[in-house]
Design brief:
With 369 residues, this protein is α/β, with parallel strands linked by helices. It contains 9 helices and 18 strands. Strands 8, 9, 10, 11, 12, 15 and 16 form a 7-stranded mixed β-sheet that branches. It has a 6-stranded mixed β-sheet with strand order 6-2-1-7-18-17, sandwiched between helices. The protein has a 3-stranded antiparallel β-sheet with strand order 3-5-4. Helix 1 runs parallel beside helix 9 and helix 3 packs across helix 9. The termini are close together. The relative contact order is 0.21.
Length: 369
Amino acid sequence: MTVAVAGAGMAGLVAAARLRELGVPVEVYEKSARPGGSMLLSSGVIWRHREWEDFRLECPGGDERLQRLVWERLDDAIDWLLSLGATAVWDETGNDRTVGKRFDPKQLTETLIGADANEYSLACERNFIRSLPANPLILCTGGFGGSPELVDRHIEPAAPLRLRANATSAGDGLVFALERGASVTSGMDEFYGRSMPDAEWGEGDFVAESQLYARFARIFDEDGVEFFDRADVSWSETNVVEATAHRPNARAYYLLHASALDERVRDRTVADMVAAAPPEARVDPAELPFDPPDGTVAAVRVVAAITHTIGGLRVDDRARVLRDDDSPIDGLYAAGVDAGGIATGGYASGLAQALVLGLTAAESIANDA
């Protein structure tokens, strides 16, 4: 038996590394030109909520069984990464609500591939999953954020969302499983993302140019409607980005008073983040398309950008893909954000979900072999 893994991002590489460790033959298939997926483009922070109750409060619509799985297994899973030779560049997250570690994404990718790089192959055609062995198969294709069609169908943004992730995360796993009778979770209309400058930016700018200070701003759409009260901004600011996606052109203006510029978010001031935005996104308050509140000294025009989807395939606590009647589809597993519903109603670490479910899928297959 050789296990096929569709996708060489965090979940897929973890699953493959664990299968090799357990003595199970595995082949990893990736349709882009490099391994690492969206993990390679991330900040590399793998975290969980410090308190279980906070996880439930933050993501009240999520599958409690899977949330418990991630919360309970993550610390040991991070230790497993370290045992492989991955190096933590930070031993904490910089947020007192959470615990975890930060890794260098490139070094983590190389560690997970290890000496078995010959087992990583490219399959760049759009429908690459259809050519893979179907049993057993682990779907790790990164959700559907890179598919404008699926995003429009499920999330229904007011305008196409900019993608802040791997462009090949286009719903391959979701479509493949649905054709085989899989069911989906709640939260199909939700996503995790960031407010990014309304300007040109690329993969190297995903972290540096994020405008992560909505709690200190007044937030208007381009029609001059203040559509989000900063008192309601969640700590992750995901709810602001989701709301922006449904405003005209999926666009907003962050307006700042002088005092807000000195506020800090982790290791940066608000002024630092404003300065990181390209000049074309920084707007003179006098040139806004509406009259700003008195005292506005800075304005940044932002767009809603999607990093990964929240909803996805229903899986059990063995990472097996489920039908509507809760029966598992023989030989079909899902990990990472192909498996949905963990963070419904809020935000949780996508890398933690990928790490734990990647390990879980591998161990489930090995135990059944």
